[in-house]
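Might I ask for a little of your time on a matter of protein folding? The record follows directly beneath this note:
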Amino acid sequence: MTSNHKVYQALIVGSGFSGIAMAISLKKQGIHSFLILEKAKDLGGTWRDNTYPGAQCDVPSALYSYSFEPFSGWKKKWSDQPQILEYLRYNVENNDLKDHILYEQEFSSSSFIEKEGYWEVKTKQGDIFTAQSLIMAIGQLHHPKVPNFKGKEIFKGDTWHSAQWNHYIDLKGKRVGVIGNAASAIQFIPEIVSQVESLTVFQRSAKWLLPKKNSLYNDKDRRLHQKYPFMLNWSRHSNNAFNGVFYHLMGENKFWKKFWQSVSMSHLKKSIKDPELLKKLTPDYPMGAVRVLLSDKYYPALAKENVEVNTEGISHVTEDGVVTHSGNKIPLDVIIYATGFESHPFMKDLDIFGLKGTSIKSTWQHSTETYLGITTSGFPNFFMMFGPNTNLAHSSVILMIESQAHYITECLAHISRHKLKYMDVKLDFQKQFTYQVNERMKKKTWVQVKNSWYKDGDIIINNWPGKAKEYQKLTKAVDQSAYTFC
């Protein structure tokens, strides 16, 4: 600690949906002594970084927004990336957060100074910040994952990850290879297919996909939303209720699985008439085991003459293309990786040191244990948003984020109100919570596939096994018996 640094009540790392929700919650509680540290030059997190053609949310706008900040200006039922970023900026402006955000301050390390009860945070820019509480709001999907294919470094064409889209390259007349066929790929492939000479989609496994049926809000809709805000709230609640149906896909409900699988197959067969392609695009695992995708444009794009879906697997990359495990060489000018993100090990790769200098790396070496996905024992006044086991696979993660922001704010208010140095979750509460989550996971469809971004080895580490309402109830009030106070 250095005497020339102000001691803040809280430091928030990250300015995406989680960080901004956290800041607004603090201000509403009357807590103004906080900073948001943002590594980039702008706010927005994943909605700042993902600018690929067709980037769009797969949760309806009315539900993919804060409950306390409905937005009457949505242009589409399912919003595009630019407007979601606009919505985040609107929230920063509307809640007076500009002066709380420090840009180009990337988290480097943090240590808890037990004697003082403060966190000391160092950034890669060489600055030091001090605060009583540290709140990590860095998200799960911000480190692009690129498979380590043999020879990929010798490819002479252009290559990039979908989350780092190269807008300077004109794809017109190019032979393009897309590696991956999940959430990002199904959005940008329809946007580029008419530009390219040929498009090869390298698919590891088929995905369950449902029609999206996106639609525009017209001026009349927006005027009505502005005049009658309850209409947006009604849309939010009805969307949430409908998404609750998808929750049953994650469990053992055979009726809903059979129903939605039939809807998905009908959607597939409507666009794909080629029997061989139809076979390639038919999943061989239960619906809900991995993320269910939404698109009206993907299947029609794959049916075009200049598109091939390749399921042979990639052996290696050459100077001018890709060689499959079957020995086929596909010549390419551009390779685009739509291979997702390193969604875990969460913060295991960060230098975070709690009581007695214990690192989070060593603490989570064998098991990523938390309490409510928000706190972890041995790291006082340390809070996580969108942490382990808090992702929703069936509805809007904003529901979870708001619950976490409320809970953390209650913790900070309790510390302040009782003039405490810190609070630290008890190990037995943490172990009980982790055990209960893991036991419930055994009955979920997610365990039925080997490879999934939901999993770390054989453990489902990303997802919440229950409904959002259950989590909201758990985080409504702080169970003081779960903590040690000092």
